[in-house]
Amino acid sequence: MPSAVAGYAPNLDKYLKSLKGQPLDLSIENLVSLLKRRQIKGAEPCAVATAHIILQVVARSKWQNVDSLLDNVSRVGRKLASAAPTELVIGNIVRRVLGLIRDEAAEDRNEPQSEDPSDGHATPPDAVPNSTVAKQDSAGDYLNNSPGPQSRPGLFVSQSAVNIPKSLFHLLSASPPADPDHVPGSPFAGSGTSTPQHHKNSSSQVHALRSEVIDGIEEIKDEISQVDDQIAALADVQIHSGDYLLVHRPSPTVERFILRAALKRKFTVLIVTEPPRKHLAEVQHASFRKKLAAAKITVVNILNGGLMAYMARVDKVILGAAAIVANGGVISDAGAAAIARAAKESGNAVIVLGGIYKLSPETPFGEDEVIEWADPSSYVDFADGQLVGSIDVRTAATEMVPADLIDTYVTNLGTHTRDHLSTLIADHYKPEDIDFHLWDDARR
Amino acid sequence: MATEANTSAPAEPPQAPAPQNTQNEAQPKDQKSKGEQPAKGGEAAGEKKLSGAELKKKAKEEKAARRAQAKAAQTSQGQPSGGQEGAGDGGKGGKGKPKQDGQGGGQHKGHHAKPVAAPVVPKEVKPAVPECFGHLSMARRINITQADKDVDPAVLVLGQHMSTFALSDSITRLEATLYAFKKVIDSYTTPIGTTFSRHFTSHVLNPQIDYLTACRPMCFSMGNAIRWLKLQISKIDIDLPDLEAKKLLCESIDNFIHERVTLADFVIASTAADLIEDDQVVLTYAHHHLVQRALLQAQEQGKQFSVVLIDDAFERVGVEHSKALAAAGIPVTYVSDLGALRSNLRDVSVVLVAAEAMFSNGAMYARSGTCDIAMAAKDLGIQVVALCETINFTERVSIDSLTYNEIDPERLSDVGFRLLFDTTRDRYISTIITELGNASPTAVPAILRKLEEL
């Protein structure tokens, strides 16, 4: 889709500027439609937009305790994720924030807070923690016990507004989430009868949590903005003098990586370009080429779709990831899989670059779930009646590179193998948040 | 870098003003950038003071005009009046072996025929082939007037067609070459004091071959056919009168084309058509006449199958192909490039591709991108069937795609680069269909041996 129509077309920058003046709900709806219209697309813009809106949710939505905050965040997260199901980073950012909230809440709990009588004090003490934690944590339970009270739509909203049953204190003193029996017990405590003094206490806590979480989200935002730099810092290790590098439609991350290596080393870069079509610049990646030329690096734009022909010469293939799924598969621009396969068959290294925020704990069932199909009319003429009438035209925009074709993943945290990815996932996401995007579907 | 960027722009309009000719040979590029500065006093800006480069350019422009006329005249006439025939005597004789595809030869630099780029671009700024691909050869447009004077008009025209890729695939080129050579034979008379078999090859045929090679590196089938033709010529009895010798040769050329091309194509297409079964999904890449013929033939036989056509994204020859198939009533899915190859291959039952040549190690030389499809198909357990006439089989061995290949001259620029072919190793190919039957790729050497016996 030619998104280049300057002027009126909304984009990420305009959206971020609009955030301040708008009510939260409107901002959310705006972002959803921007995502649906692909006016914000690509991993980084999506991640940035998600981080911003979630920050707004944390800062401006109504919530009185951890539960309702988690609710609010995951509700908005689900909306965004379903607006752009192929942009896995949206889910990643939401999960990161959910995990962050849980961590902050856990810290609060561990801090010795002598007097912390909760709103839900009226309820049996053991029931409260169990129910809350189970509700938030075990997403699978929603799938299994769907007829529970939670499965009524709209309940979450009312809960966040009315039910204020649990305190931070109780929330995380909880037993492990493996206990589904308690799930249906949530509307129990709905009394909302909190005494003024409790309110005061919890509101100060809420305030503390809010600022902690906001700080955390700011950190995530910083991380996203620094990813390219941090990845580039690892370039020297991967790229050596005399190498022949093949890059496929270099993303800013890849460009930065190669330019950093170019400071120290002399090598040759082969750029695989996008096939010619309407609305495409004559010379692709011109500015990248210029910078490389300034560094006295030989650059060649390759005008081939199949890259096997070059593999005898190429030493390393560098791909930019749009997302990395849990099993190690990488979602990238269409054509990347063919290149990776060719490299693999010829024994060349395939290096994938992508920030850790692109690492998704999901594993899609099939490629079709996550790849995006492009507008065929940029390749075939719509006026060509014979084509339009009788021929099915397909053009992929992204595709999944199977995990077994990839040798190394370079993220802002370092260089990893496929086996190591599961550890990274465990470090960054809470197991209870992994399926957050499914809850909504299950309740419908 | 900066200076180079400057040079190309000002150099574009042909400039007559006098630059300093003291340094002309050494730094032609520098000079061009200075060319726009006002000339320094000393020189009287005469024609002779022009730099070598500019003189050359000017001369070429004049020539180009003449050439354009000459070309128009020649193409309209087809067969001009003799004039060139006797010239064979003065020819420079056998100039060594003709160069074949990627024989490792250089770029023919400084050869008599200079490449002529698009009119805007100054000739000296020929886009450089990246160093790592410098060993590969490339088709070049050669102006007809720059060609050797011994070259027959029919061959001249053929060379133009080849260098512009109007005739692009190996079999079409082979056929056209043989027909052109028939004309060369026709118009030849043996000079007194020599014999046909001794004189013709070295003095008449070789210049033609040189010219064709300069226009575009010969494909393997042409090499094979020319070797065969030379053998036939050498076999001719010295006592045989010219007329009969020529008749004999022309007949055997006709037979050769009939056997090795016409019949071969027929057999291969029908074998491939028989291979397709009802309810299959056939995947093919870009366009090749053999594949198209096979698919249309299967459709005529009433088979119900569908076709997934993956196009070469940088040379959309598949669009017309898919239209032709759809017009015949075959359900066609057109895929614009190699993206999401696995998804597109999922329901496919057989991959049908045509080879440009087969190496004796069983590797297939075909349009760039074929190998990627074959690999993915192999990975998914889909059989890959290659169609190839045995005239395209070669003794050579290629284990990677850069041993033999060709650079696409149309897309070679300062920024772009494209290889025309790639090599698919035997392990990715299930079957080769030839006119001698179906074979496994490892059987190529056996087929080659059999061909020698024939």
Automatic annotation (TrEMBL), chain A:
SUPFAM superfamilies, per the entry: NagB/RpiA/CoA transferase-like
Record region (Disordered): 107-156, 173-207
Subcellular location: Cytoplasm, Cytosol
Coiled coil recorded as keyword: no
Subunit structure: Component of the translation initiation factor 2B (eIF2B) complex which is a heterodecamer of two sets of five different subunits: alpha, beta, gamma, delta and epsilon. Subunits alpha, beta and delta comprise a regulatory subcomplex and subunits epsilon and gamma comprise a catalytic subcomplex. Within the complex, the hexameric regulatory complex resides at the center, with the two heterodimeric catalytic subcomplexes bound on opposite sides.
Keywords of this entry: Cytoplasm, Initiation factor, Protein biosynthesis
Organism (species): Bionectria ochroleuca (Gliocladium roseum)
Family: Belongs to the eIF-2B alpha/beta/delta subunits family.
Pfam family name, one: IF-2B
InterPro entries xrefs: eIF2B_beta_subunit (IPR051855), IF-2B-related (IPR000649), IF_2B-like_C (IPR042529), M1Pi_N (IPR027363), NagB/RpiA_transferase-like (IPR037171)
Signal peptide segment: none
Main location: cytoplasm
UniProt name for this protein: Translation initiation factor eIF2B subunit beta
Annotated Gene3D superfamilies: translation initiation factor eif-2b, domain 1, Translation initiation factor eif-2b, domain 2
Regions of compositional bias (Polar residues) in chain numbering: 191-206
Keyword Cytoplasm assigned: yes
From TrEMBL, chain B:
Biased composition (Basic and acidic residues): 27-37, 45-65
Biased composition (Gly residues): 80-93
Subunit-structure text: Component of the translation initiation factor 2B (eIF2B) complex which is a heterodecamer of two sets of five different subunits: alpha, beta, gamma, delta and epsilon. Subunits alpha, beta and delta comprise a regulatory subcomplex and subunits epsilon and gamma comprise a catalytic subcomplex. Within the complex, the hexameric regulatory complex resides at the center, with the two heterodimeric catalytic subcomplexes bound on opposite sides.
Claim: Cytoplasm is one of the keywords in the record: yes
Record family assignment: Belongs to the eIF-2B alpha/beta/delta subunits family.
InterPro entries: IF-2B-related, IF_2B-like_C, NagB/RpiA_transferase-like
Stretches the record annotates as Disordered: 1-122
Source organism phylogeny: Eukaryota, Fungi, Dikarya, Ascomycota, Pezizomycotina
Keyword Ribonucleoprotein on entry: no
Entries under PANTHER family matching the protein: TRANSLATION INITIATION FACTOR EIF-2B, TRANSLATION INITIATION FACTOR EIF-2B SUBUNIT DELTA
Localization (cell): Cytoplasm, Cytosol
Keywords, in A-Z order: Cytoplasm, Initiation factor, Protein biosynthesis
Protein name (record): Translation initiation factor eIF2B subunit delta
Species: Bionectria ochroleuca
